[in-house]
Specification:
Chain lengths: 535, 429
């Protein structure tokens, strides 16, 4: 009996002691200054207090609230901490009591970047033992950016437990990053061996002191030097790949914007100054589709770009066919008048859109699957929206080539552009082909606008920024050649991104223009020119 | 009236603008309009700056309505004349001339970019007009005809960088100075570079980058930032990107996974309105420095926010479902009220009398302090706040000055400025 009583008292004592220390941590988190908050977070992380997970998550999401003593309606209310719930209402921390609303007088607990990084580390430490693979992976990545020696024990425990080889490798890297400061030379060397496998910027930064004279042991210094060199090589590979990728990505956007013009100007010979406005119409079609999804199908909002593509194509193509029938067809063979007429049309279209949607830019949101990116190297992240545009451009290009080369309509278009009277003699309805060709070019511009809405701003003047680039691409590539357009777009994209990397965006723009002027002086027919009499 | 303006336009197009301006000088603006006092609003409603400037036009109209509802100024109602200079800098000068000579406005509230202000400055000085400029800028200017209700560098840029270098700001030691290529970012960065050097930051730890207006492809810039940040010391980005380029910049920042805890970005031209079209969840913790944030908690801000929300809803403004206020809106609001107070004090709308009456004029501002127009240098005394972006697109205030601080239009960090006078003498220098 006395023994039982003794146990009870002992348990009660330990329980209250634990509770008191937790309550102190919670109090520091909610009411302390930044230093106290960070100390509490480090304590929670070191002790592995997973009870704190919901509190820490709430703190990160800006959903943690505190009511100071006496701040409520009843003046002697004790101090209390609450977590606001996303669906409304709140829960009281520890008692888990559900409340219909946040109690009066409670204040949001705010943090700054310094606390936020300590919070990230604490969350990572607590999540190392999480059952969710993605959470564990994110936790390791967070630890890796700034590993702290006091985490060593829990990292070693996590390595033993870890079943996923990738996460285990990252855990071992993290351990090596801590052990690299070990007093034992052989431990340091072994850690260096592990780190030579990585290409992380954080690792590279860590190795600098070891590769310099701060390290007294020559063997370790030589090994560290070797490892830094390997990592540097990997990093510079990532950098060059990054340059090429951003160039190809810009090129794919240029190509997409110029493809429609390549059909209208390149194949049909119409100087269409309203091309940029067809792009703009496509972008606004994406905006309208987005709004329709938000209003009528909010659950499927993420898939709106898929429907926006055909909508954009049709909107621009119909506008194109309409304009061709009303204006452009009367002006075939009179390039100067076509130029002026289509320029007038472009001004009209801009003003129309301005009156309908307002002069300000409209917001087109990226769906979740087009946000973020995939990390290839630690210094090379490929954003999903740009990857998607790259794939989309390839698909559109393939479809266009198939259409022009493999279908009857394509055959007619080529026939009409090569020899209009002869095509008409053979029974081709040239006016119908003209309208369809113009519509096709405009529709392609619409698709470009839909894609551009995912990376840039959508406003009435959107087209103006692309019309010059589009003409540049088509003229440089050689009029009448789809292949030339492709090479010119990708070439311009990569070239301007490489110049931009060294001399900045302003000079890159100037340099590209100057280069094109000289190139056209030397070779007016562009990179590719049609050979023979048809040219 | 219509015929008169037609004739005026015809005369102007014949190139007789000089005669007209002489005429305008002879006839004081107070006599130009009977019954009402005309007030010019000169903000871009289209083009790359429309994202920022359109709301300033709306807030100006709201303040004018408010003053009219209380009986106007000098017992006369205010009448707004709104023009759209379309983010086109030479057009700003043309429209300013039109406001002063044709519409004969008593005062103009307008401009955002420094290049637009520089473009209208000669017009206001030549015609002795009055301009209230509501946006933070680079300093290095003092004109008798301009009142600057936005911040000078020592009221925004310098405190923000000091915060970044402090313990709470992350003790940044390497800086990327990133901006749009025109006078404000270039001058601000010149001042910041001199300031950083005075704090012992080496040249190798500063990277300067500029992009053109309306730039939309920030891949290379972000890659350069990543590379620069990988050198070991804590790196921060100081962004003076202006206009709609901010949307692709922040989108790319989020997509490339640059977190505020690794490389914080502090912006001087990004507020609540510019973040409207951006998914702010990946941007949590990036910073902005202003003299006002919508999230400030005080009674005058509550009233200001409510007034704006009601106005936006009543006028069905775009974005009225989520009405936002920001710093230049507050500065516009303060400017109009200060002007109205000065006119009441001077009992006249004549430029020189109003300028004299503006000295020491104070106003209980939505930032929670009573801000005062300096007796000498035409700048407001303002408090400074540093805020971090929250998931909902608002800002958490993480640092602030204890009270309003006096503007230093001539930055002491630039050589030769100590000799310059702290008040305008007739013309700007």
């Amino acid at each position: 009996m006395t023994r039982l009583l003794f146990f009870l008292v002992f348990f009660a004592a330990t329980a209250t002691r634990l509770f008191a220390s937790d309550a102190q941590s919670l109090r520091s988190l909610a009411l302390g200054n930044n230093d106290e908050k960070i100390a509490a977070l480090e304590k929670i992380a070191a002790e592995g207090k997973s009870d704190f997970l919901p509190v820490l998550e709430a703190l990160r999401e800006d959903a943690l609230y505190v009511r100071k003593a006496g701040a409520g309606a009843g003046t002697d209310d004790p101090e209390a901490v609450f977590v606001a719930l996303p669906e409304g209402g709140a829960t009281k921390v520890w008692t888990k009591e559900r409340l219909a609303a946040l109690p009066e007088g409670s204040e949001n607990v705010t943090i700054n970047n310094r606390v936020r990084s300590a919070l990230g580390n604490a969350l990572a430490a607590l999540r190392l033992s999480s059952g969710d693979r993605d959470l564990r992976r994110a936790a390791v990545d967070a630890l890796l950016t700034a590993p702290r020696p006091e985490m060593l024990a829990s990292i070693e425990r996590a390595i033993l437990r870890e079943s996923d080889p990738k996460i285990r490798r990252r855990l071992e890297t993290t351990r090596a990053m801590i052990l690299i400061h070990d007093a034992d030379k052989s431990v340091r060397l072994r850690a260096l061996g592990v780190l030579s496998e990585t290409s992380d910027v954080a690792v590279r930064r860590l190795l600098d002191p070891l590769a310099s004279s701060a390290e007294t042991d020559t063997e370790v210094r030589a090994a560290a030097l070797r490892v830094t060199r390997t990592i540097d090589e990997r990093l510079s590979r990532g950098e060059i790949l990054g340059r090429i990728f951003s160039g190809v990505s810009l090129g794919s956007i240029l190509l997409l914007a110029a493809l429609g013009l390549a059909v209208i100007y390149g194949l049909m010979g119409v100087i269409n100054m309203a091309h940029g406005e067809f792009i703009m119409i496509g972008a606004y079609a994406a905006y309208v589709t987005q709004n329709a999804f938000r209003n009528y199908l909010p659950t499927h909002f993420d898939w709106y770009p898929l429907l926006a593509l055909p909508v954009a194509f049709l909107a621009s193509a119909l506008t194109g066919v309409f304009l061709e029938r009303i204006v452009v067809r009367h002006l075939y063979g009179r390039p100067l008048e076509t130029l002026l007429a289509t320029w007038g049309i472009s001004l009209g279209l801009i003003q129309t859109v301005r009156s309908i949607f307002g002069a300000q830019n409209v917001a087109v949101e990226n769906p979740v699957w087009l946000s973020g990116g995939i990390e290839v190297y630690s210094n090379l992240t490929l954003p999903y929206n740009r990857l998607a545009i790259l794939a989309f451009t390839a698909a559109v290009l393939g479809a266009l080539v198939a259409l022009l080369g493999g279908t009857r309509l394509g055959l007619y278009v080529r026939a009409v552009t090569q020899n209009r009277p002869m095509a008409r003699c053979l029974g081709v309805s040239t006016s119908r082909v003209d309208a369809l060709g113009f519509g096709l070019g405009a529709g392609l511009a619409g698709l470009a606008g839909c894609a551009l809405s995912q990376v840039g701003n959508v406003g009435p003047e959107l087209g103006q920024t692309w019309i010059v680039d589009s003409f540049m691409v088509v003229v440089l590539g050689g009029v009448g050649q789809i292949a030339g357009t492709v090479y010119a777009a990708l070439g311009l994209g990569v070239l301007s991104k490489f110049i931009e990397g060294f001399y900045g965006a302003v000079l890159a723009k100037i340099a590209i223009l100057v280069m094109i002027i000289f190139f056209i002086q030397k070779r007016p027919q562009g990179i590719f020119a049609l050979k023979g009499r048809v040219a | 009236m219509k015929r008169r303006s037609f004739i005026a336009a015809a005369i102007k197009s014949l190139g007789a603008a000089a005669t007209l301006s002489a005429l305008a000088l002879n006839c004081p603006p107070s006599l130009a309009a009977e019954g009402t006092i005309k007030v010019g609003v000169l903000h871009s409603l289209s083009g790359t700056m429309a994202i920022s400037e359109t709301v300033l036009k709306d807030v100006a109209l709201m303040s004018i309505d408010e003053i009219n509802a209380k009986g106007g100024v000098l017992g006369r109602k205010l009448e707004a004349v709104v023009v759209d200079p379309a983010s086109n800098w030479p057009l700003f000068a043309e429209k300013a001339k039109q406001l002063l000579t044709q519409d004969k406005v008593a005062v103009v509230f307008g401009c955002w970019t420094s290049v637009s202000r520089k473009s209208v400055l000669p017009v206001f000085e030549e015609l002795n007009g009055l301009l209230f400029y509501p946006v933070q800028y680079e300093g290095e200017e003092l004109s008798k005809n301009v009142f600057y209700t936005g911040a000078a560098p020592n009221q925004q840029a310098i405190p923000a960088v000091e915060y970044l270098m402090s313990k709470d700001g992350g003790e940044a030691a390497r800086f990327v100075l990133l901006g749009t290529d025109y006078v404000y970012p270039r001058t601000t960065n010149k001042i910041l570079k001199a300031f950083l050097k005075s704090k012992g930051v080496a040249d190798a730890d500063i990277l300067e980058e500029y992009t053109p207006f309306g730039h939309s492809d920030y891949q290379t810039v972000i890659a350069n930032i990543k590379k620069f940040a990988s050198a070991g010391k804590k790196t921060a980005v100081i962004s003076t990107i202006n206009g709609d380029s901010n949307v692709p910049f922040y989108k790319e920042l989020g997509n490339q996974g640059i977190k505020a805890t690794d490389v914080p970005v502090v912006a001087f031209s990004v507020g609540e309105e510019e973040l409207r079209g951006v998914d702010t969840k990946p941007l949590v913790g990036h910073l902005a420095a202003w003299n006002y944030f919508m999230s400030l908690k005080n009674p005058s801000n509550d009233a200001f926010r409510k007034q704006w929300a009601d106005y936006a809803n009543a006028k069905k403004l775009p974005g009225a479902n989520r009405p936002l206020t920001n710093d230049p809106m507050e500065a516009t609001y303060i400017g109009i009220h200060l002007w109205a107070q000065a006119v009441e004090k001077a009992q006249s709308v004549e430029t020189d009398k109003v300028i004299a009456a503006m000295r020491g004029q104070s106003f209980k501002a939505p930032d929670g302090f009573t801000v005062k127009m300096d007796e000498k240098n035409h700048h407001l005394h303002k408090p400074v706040f540093v805020g971090e972006i929250r998931p909902d697109g608002q800002f958490n205030i993480v640092w602030k000055t204890p009270g309003p601080i006096r503007a230093q239009p001539w930055s002491p960090y630039l050589p030769g400025n100590s000799a310059k006078k702290d008040e305008p003498d007739g013309k700007s220098k």
